[in-house]
Design a protein that fits this description.
The chain is mostly helical. The chain contains eight helices and no strands.
Length: about 170
């Protein structure tokens, strides 16, 4: 709670003694990163402190706050510094790609850490899936979901400013 409050305070006054918060606040102001995408991030980080299992709604909310908004924050920086003018429709399509990429990366992380999250932390992110009941069908469904999201993101790569599209592709 204190870190979140310090973040908003730093955005408002332009300074924090916490160097990470200070750097983020400067970027947030410069790139117009709004509170509406910062709040979900803090929500998801708090969820990791107490939530052990997710239903579909809490999973979707967690992925949005832990990964999709990070994609949106990066996109805001890319647009701000990319030197291109985008229409509202273009920005919306780019946002869909940024959210899809963030979601895909988060799901890859969940798959990679499935056993460790369950066995060490007692946590299961995927609704109804644990390390003990994970099936090949679950794996195939999740990999297909991730592939679809990566395709959405890949389709927007050519529309990003050239200076950042290579880095995002990598």
């Amino acid at each position: 709670d204190e870190l979140e409050a310090e973040t908003y305070r730093a955005i408002e006054i332009g300074f924090s003694a916490n160097l990470v918060v200070h750097a983020f606040a400067l970027s947030a102001v410069k790139c117009s990163i709004e509170r509406e995408i910062i709040e979900p991030f803090f929500y998801s980080m708090r969820a990791d402190l107490t939530q052990r299992e997710h239903d579909q709604a809490s999973f979707d909310r967690y992925v949005y706050g832990s990964a999709e908004v990070v994609g949106l924050m990066c996109l805001a920086a890319f647009i701000r510094h990319g030197g291109l003018d985008y229409s509202r429709e273009e920005k919306l399509r780019l946002a869909d790609g940024a959210k899809a990429l963030g979601s895909a990366f988060q799901k890859v992380n969940f798959l990679r850490d499935l056993a460790a999250d369950f066995n060490t932390l007692g946590r299961s992110y995927f609704p109804g899936i644990t390390a003990t009941n994970f099936t090949d069908a679950d794996r195939d469904r999740l990999v297909a979901e991730i592939s679809e999201e990566l395709e959405i993101a890949a389709n927007e790569l050519p529309n990003l400013p050239p200076a950042c599209s290579r880095a995002v592709a990598a």
